[in-house]
Design a protein that fits this description.
This protein is an alpha+beta fold and 275 residues long. The strands form 3 sheets. Strands 1-6-7 form a 3-stranded antiparallel β-sheet, with no helix packed on it. A two-stranded antiparallel ribbon has the order 2-5. It is elongated. The protein is built from 7 helices and 7 strands; from the N terminus they run βαββββααββαααα. It has 2 domains: 131 residues, no CATH class; 118 residues. The longest helix is centred in the last third of the chain and has 44 residues. 44% of the residues lie in helices and 18% in strands.
Length: 275
C-alpha cells in the first residue's frame, strides 16, 4: 500500500461554528443558538468472576450524555419563553389545564398535531468549510429538562467612566511617544543622510562610533536609508505607538456609545426606586 493511500479523503478539520440546529417546536432556536454539545456515548461493563481477578466484558447497554444547547435571549424573550412554556406545560405545576398548553405550543410553532405533543425532534446539521451539509444528526422525541438561570445586571455599565479614564491616559501617553519617536526618526534620518553622503564630521562619527562610509552615488542614498538598521528601529518604535493610539481611539469610541446605555440604566434605577 502506497503512503498516499493512507491519507484521509478530506484533510480539513471540523470547524465548531459550522452547524445549524433546528427544533420542530422551537422556531427561534436556529437563529439564537450559540453552541451545542454533541452527546457522548458510553457502554456498561459486565464483570465475570474468576478465581483470580474479575474479567470485564462489553455490556449490552449504550448510554448517551445529555444534549446541551446554549442560546441567546432576544429582547422580547421569545427564545426563552418557548422553552419555559414547554417545560411548564409538561409539568403542569398548577393544574391540569396547563397541560393543554402543549397543543397551543404546537400551533404556535406551526407543527402538525401529534399524539405525543410533549416531545419534539431536533436536527443538528454539520457543515463543511464551504457550508456544504455533511452530517445530519437527528434527536428523536427530545424534551427539555432544565432551563438555566440567566442574570440581568447593569452594574458593569457603571465601570465605563473608569475604563474611559484608563484608556484616555494610555492614549495621551502614546500620542506623546509617537511625537517623540517621530522627532528621533527625523533626526536619525538627517544624521544618516550626512553619513552616507560623506558630510558627517569626525566628531559626530566618533560620537556615534561609526566608521567613515565609502562614497556612494546620489541615486543609491535612498536605498541605503530605507535599509538602515538604526532608522528602521525608530520606524518600528513609531509604528508600535501609532497602533496603540489607534486601538485606544477605537475603545474610547465604543465606550462613548455605551454612555447612552449607562443613562438608560440610571433612569431605570430611578424608576424602580420611585424617583
Amino acid at each position: 500500500m502506497a503512503a498516499t493511500d493512507r491519507n484521509p479523503v478530506n484533510p480539513n478539520f471540523l470547524q465548531p461554528n459550522k452547524y445549524v440546529l433546528n427544533f420542530d417546536r422551537l422556531p427561534n432556536m436556529s437563529y439564537f443558538c450559540q453552541s451545542v454539545s454533541v452527546p457522548g456515548i458510553s457502554m456498561s461493563e459486565t464483570p465475570q468472576s474468576t478465581p483470580f481477578v474479575d474479567i470485564f466484558a462489553p455490556g449490552d447497554k449504550a448510554i448517551y450524555d445529555i444534549f446541551n444547547v446554549t442560546f441567546l435571549i432576544d429582547e422580547r424573550m421569545g427564545s426563552w419563553i418557548e422553552v419555559h412554556d414547554w417545560i411548564r406545560a409538561m409539568t403542569f405545576p398548577e393544574d391540569f389545564e396547563d397541560y393543554k398548553g402543549l397543543s397551543k405550543l404546537n400551533k404556535a410553532a406551526t407543527m402538525v398535531q401529534t399524539k405525543t405533543p410533549q416531545y419534539s425532534d431536533a436536527t443538528l446539521t454539520v457543515l463543511s468549510s464551504s457550508n456544504i451539509p455533511y452530517v445530519k444528526i437527528t434527536f428523536r422525541d427530545a424534551f427539555p429538562t432544565t432551563l438555566s438561570t440567566f442574570i440581568m445586571s447593569g452594574k458593569e455599565l457603571t465601570k465605563i467612566p473608569l475604563y474611559h479614564s484608563k484608556y484616555l491616559n494610555i492614549l495621551s501617553h502614546h500620542r506623546l511617544l509617537v511625537k517623540d519617536a517621530n522627532f528621533k526618526l527625523n533626526r536619525m534620518k538627517r544624521l544618516k543622510w550626512e553619513y552616507y553622503t560623506g558630510k558627517l564630521d569626525d566628531e559626530d562619527l566618533n560620537k556615534h562610533g561609526w566608521e567613515p562610509f565609502p562614497y556612494v552615488l546620489k541615486s543609491e542614498i535612498t536605498t541605503y536609508l530605507d535599509s538602515d538598521e538604526d532608522i528602521n528601529k525608530y520606524k518600528a518604535s513609531k509604528a508600535i505607538h501609532e497602533e496603540i493610539v489607534t486601538v485606544c481611539e477605537a475603545i474610547l469610541k465604543e465606550l462613548h456609545s455605551r454612555t447612552f446605555q449607562l443613562k438608560s440604566f440610571i433612569d431605570w434605577e430611578k424608576f424602580i426606586q420611585g424617583v
